[in-house]
């Protein structure tokens, strides 16, 4: 999830001293408080392996925390042609955002071939497998990969996928990054962030519904509108709050806010692509199922590609 700050809360995170940034000691305490809750090797890697007959599977690195346990994979269309525009889809930059991972894999299995004659498509379905296993926003060093997409990144997850995208030796025309906004953003991850940085926790509300984060510098209004149109056939779109905002940012059109991607070092800012969007599915809504969350992620990618077909 991406958000701006709104109002202060007195809640204090159990690790660290209020008003003081974490040292290595607190980072270690935090890391020791995490635990494995699901397995990348069981949930994700078999789904990637199952696609080897129809897509090119590329290992673009491995996380040094455990290279055998955390290999990093991307999927590429086999009909790669330098004359075609290239589309990038990323998931699991925040490993705990489940439908980002499984929505990317579902798209690769069920939908990618409908577009491979028109586009080169590359999918990195699980950028942060340690975060996936521990259901965590950060990596083991208490670094947020989705604030680390810049040269000399402190996050292996970000650095590896950036190097891979650069190695493709092609301009990325569009990038769809699949995320979720969850109740744990307010109950765990944002309080932890405030504690880590020695700041007060600023409380906010979790919007009930799907929304998109576009690029302040290249907002691509019609592109975002197309995606929302496809997604709202699958799930509900988050309404603006009483101030016309979602997570503290102005709603620029139905279900869409914009962020300065490069300034914030977000995943969708890793290239200079013309079209980018970050999806935000809300899996904790009583109105949705896990399947609908995955389907919403797929609908977002499809909505993006359908629009791009029209503007080629």
Automatic annotation (TrEMBL):
PROSITE patterns: PEPTIDASE_M14
A GO molecular-function descriptor: metallocarboxypeptidase activity
Record-annotated Peptidase M14 domain positions: 36-312
CDD domains linked: M14_REP34-like
Annotated InterPro entries: Peptidase_M14
Protein's GO biological process: proteolysis
Family (UniProt): Belongs to the peptidase M14 family.
Name recorded for this polypeptide: Peptidase M14 domain-containing protein
Organism, scientific name: Vibrio maritimus
């Amino acid at each position: 999830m991406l958000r701006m700050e709104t109002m202060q809360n007195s809640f204090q995170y159990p690790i660290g001293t209020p008003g003081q940034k974490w040292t290595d000691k607190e980072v270690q305490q935090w890391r020791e408080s995490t635990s494995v809750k699901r397995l990348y090797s069981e949930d994700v890697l078999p789904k990637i392996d199952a696609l080897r007959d129809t897509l090119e599977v590329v290992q673009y690195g491995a996380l040094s925390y455990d290279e055998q346990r955390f290999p990093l994979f991307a999927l590429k269309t086999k009909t790669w042609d330098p004359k075609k525009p290239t589309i990038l889809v990323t998931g699991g930059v925040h490993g705990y955002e489940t439908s980002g991972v499984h929505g990317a894999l579902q798209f690769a299995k069920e939908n990618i071939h409908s577009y491979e004659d028109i586009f080169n498509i590359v999918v990195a379905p699980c950028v942060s497998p340690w975060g996936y296993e521990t259901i965590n926003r950060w990596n083991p060093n208490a670094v947020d990969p989705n604030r680390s997409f810049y040269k000399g990144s402190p996050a292996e997850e970000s650095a590896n996928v950036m190097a891979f995208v650069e190695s493709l030796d092609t301009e990325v025309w569009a990038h769809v990054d699949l995320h979720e906004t969850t109740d744990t953003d307010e109950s765990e991850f944002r309080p932890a962030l405030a504690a880590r940085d020695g700041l007060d926790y600023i409380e906010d509300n979790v919007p009930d519904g799907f929304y998109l984060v576009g690029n302040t510098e290249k907002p691509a209004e019609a592109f975002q509108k197309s995606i929302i149109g496809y997604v709202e056939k699958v799930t509900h779109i988050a309404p603006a709050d009483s101030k016309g905002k979602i997570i503290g940012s102005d709603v620029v059109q139905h279900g869409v806010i914009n962020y300065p991607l490069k300034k914030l070092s977000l995943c969708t800012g890793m290239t200079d692509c013309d079209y980018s969007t970050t999806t935000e599915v809300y899996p904790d809504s009583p109105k949705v199922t896990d399947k609908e969350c995955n389907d919403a992620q797929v609908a977002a990618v499809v909505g993006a590609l359908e629009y791009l077909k029209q503007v080629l």
